[in-house]
């Protein structure tokens, strides 16, 4: 038995020597080797195989592989050894783990004593290839044991092979091979490769199966075809060579159309690094020179690719913008802070780009699958709508972002305006612009969100939250609350300073006779002011501003809670949400009336019922749930036809209403403006109510009229009588304490509650006062009324100044009237007290110039007539009736701004009508002269007839006559022109006095 | 019986495949034929370490021989 075994060993050893060293039996070396081997087998000093040792060694190898990060190999090794040890093949046993198992493993382990990392990996790959070799193990193993013939092909083997092949493409593969093209080019297997396949290695497999690295200058020479159409490039080159001696083919790279398609798709996904399209320093894509298709000339390929490159530029530019905005927002760089509007715009743009990328990925997958024909031409054709969208976006981006430099508010406004204008523009092109509108509308709505939110926060909650100052209206920090100029100056529009503050009285030009005109003017001014406001906001900008200011007023009054919607606890719905909801409802609702319109035969708008629309209307019912779902998706830019259909349908109803074809504006008018107007109405009305009821605004206005305009005649008479008497007696009247005491005494008697609010002061009239008329002595007298805060926004210092001017003028008239009224006939006729003797008296009586006295008396009456007419005119025709008009207007006013405007208007109107305006300075001068005559005349009168010479009388009579003549002719002219209708009554009364004079 | 035989053969082949794969993983440099011989030797009770020594020696000598052959020298025996 042992011998037999030894014989077998000898035989096997011989085979081994043959297999390893290649010596044949009979050779000298063979014998030597055999001897050596057998002696080694027999007389070795090795211990018997220790299964534990082997197991440890196996574990160690496994560990080593894992440490070298060859996890796959480690697992494989583990499973292989396990399966080997369990297989019952040796020593005739039915179970594994025999000594032979361990002996074999020990042999392998010894032989693999140093499986270093580098050799190991290579070996592993080789193993993959080498297994392909066919070796009939069965026959070999069973040789000598079983006399049976060859075994049939085992199916296991071929399965293994397939598995290997399936697995191979995943090993280090960059991309799938592109073997076939639709252009008719067949990629044939290189014969040299097939021979190579016998000595296959991983590298050769890769080179065969992975796409040619054209980006490294490699070109696939296997791509050739005998079709003319597919070898145009080659033919062209041959032609050029033959026709041009100096033709020089600069090294060109052959790319297949599929490669070009994929690079194009990458380009459109915003990938900056690709081979065909290179990014230059300006951030623009250029097409690499020297590319060629086998079926296109270089020039035509270039032209084709260049067109695509422009769209790649757009995508890249948009992407750069989005990234820049994101970076800035992320780093919170306050110097380069990005406005919220820009952020919102960037977000929507990013969403769009993301969608674009998705589409590109889908297309790329299609291209990779190679299941359907895809050429550059079909690709560009399919992408044409996208290209159009990109063009539009680029235009908007260029105009709205790139070409706009300035403050944040300017940028934000400009962006919103650009978007809106572009929408309107495309909207007006009708059917053609529908797709564009459906692209831009969501973009615009989303971009406008921060802006609308700011407005909402301001007019609903009273907080102007605008961290980077992008809103058109800014709070002036230097204007404190409780300032009378609060309303005018607390907020400023971002515009040129020249047009600011239009509501101040200076800007209000005279000539406003009705509120209607005033409103128009005010609108124009607002329009000028709002030239920087976003276009969509312009129609309601005024409302926004007034509502915002009113909220601010409430805040400063500490009564914000009164006006915040829904009280303290609940939160009103954000304006933006309301807007969006309304928009949706509106558009869905608009679906309904469009149907009968289409059916009506005499519809003159048939032009607008295009096939597209009618199809939509037929297909979609009025209650189409899909329509709603789709519209809800509008903000994910997924809304397609639905929105535009709605827009279209809106066109109809709009057209039929006879309005202009501006759907977007109409949509806004229905969906956004009402909410703003509603808020405006609520807040402003509430503010006015509060001012009127809690802060007694009307009461203060009335008080101003009472005292400054002397409506409270009796009170004021008591006051000014004392001054006039002092003046008459030529006493010192400018004493402040005297004046104030006099005023307070009268007020205590009639209006005790006002006594502490009103006081009087005398302003020095300066040097000029010397050569002034005596009538102007009272010009320094000024009333002051303490108007508390919220009301002094309306009745401000400027208004008080004007009130004072009117007051002073009224005092002059009153004084003249007072002087003339108090003349006594006795005083005139009394004789000189110094010449007091009977004789002289008699003589005096004799010489008493009755004629002169009569003339003096008549002159007095004429003066009285004049002064009374003037007084009557001013007090009733002007002050009273204008006051009534004013009261009516205030009742009708809807917001504080209107009240301020009306009040200013009122004040300036009476100022002008009291002849105090510069334009009527000549009349004023003449009137003052007459009043002055009256005052001087009173002195003469009181001095007695003796002191009135005929010459003096003649002089004053002439002067008076001239004045009246001048006034009459002037006023008549004015009346004829019709520009000052209120002067008519005055002119009439004056002209009658003149006529009397003339007829006399 | 024939079925058992067939099964045994296929098991033997599978085992040999496994062994060859292990051998490749360990980078022993043995081809299938040599491996089969080694299996047979081990089955016959040859000490695996002695066998490994012999294989390594044979390889070294044959390589040396080839080298001297290619450089025109005489054959050299161990």
Report on the structure:
Chain A: Residues 261-580 form the Gamma tubulin complex component protein N-terminal domain. Chain A: Residues 701-991 form the Gamma tubulin complex component C-terminal domain. Chain A: Belongs to the TUBGCP family. Chain A: Residues 499-527 have a biased composition (Polar residues). The complex is a heterodimer of chains A (1000) and B (78). Chain A has four domains: 1-109, no CATH class; 229-403, no CATH class; 407-495 and 533-589 and 656-689, no CATH class; 695-766 and 773-826 and 849-996, Gamma-tubulin complex, C-terminal domain (Four Helix Bundle (Hemerythrin (Met), subunit A)). In chain A, 63% of the residues lie in helices and 3% in strands. Chain A is built from 41 helices and ten strands. By secondary structure, chain B is mostly helical. Chain B is elongated and about 55 Å long. The termini of chain B are far apart. Classes of the chains: A mainly alpha (1000), B mainly alpha (78). Chains A and B meet through helix 1, helix 2, helix 4, helix 5 and helix 6 of A and helix 1, helix 2 and helix 3 of B.
Give the mean pLDDT of chain A: 73
How many beta-strand segments of chain B?
0
Gap from first CA to last CA of chain A: 178 Å
Which range does the strand content of chain B fall in? under 5%
Helix-strand layout with pairing:
The complex is a heterodimer of chains A (1000) and B (78).
Chain A: H1 2-20, H2 28-42, H3 51-67, H4 71-86, H5 99-111, H6 117-130, H7 137-141, H8 155-167, E1 186-187, H9 191-196, H10 202-209, E2 223-224, H11 232-243, E3 253-254, H12 257-268, E4 277-279, E5 285-287, E6 291-292, H13 298-331, H14 340-369, H15 376-382, H16 384-402, H17 408-427, H18 434-447, H19 449-461, E7 473-475, H20 486-489, E8 491-493, H21 515-529, H22 541-557, H23 560-563, H24 575-599, H25 611-619, H26 625-632, H27 641-656, H28 663-671, H29 673-693, H30 697-707, H31 713-728, H32 736-750, E9 758-762, E10 781-785, H33 789-792, H34 797-821, H35 825-829, H36 838-847, H37 850-892, H38 896-913, H39 921-943, H40 950-977, H41 984-999
Parallel strand pairs in A: 3-6
Antiparallel strand pairs in A: 1-2, 4-5, 7-8, 9-10
Chain B: H1 2-25, H2 32-43, H3 48-70
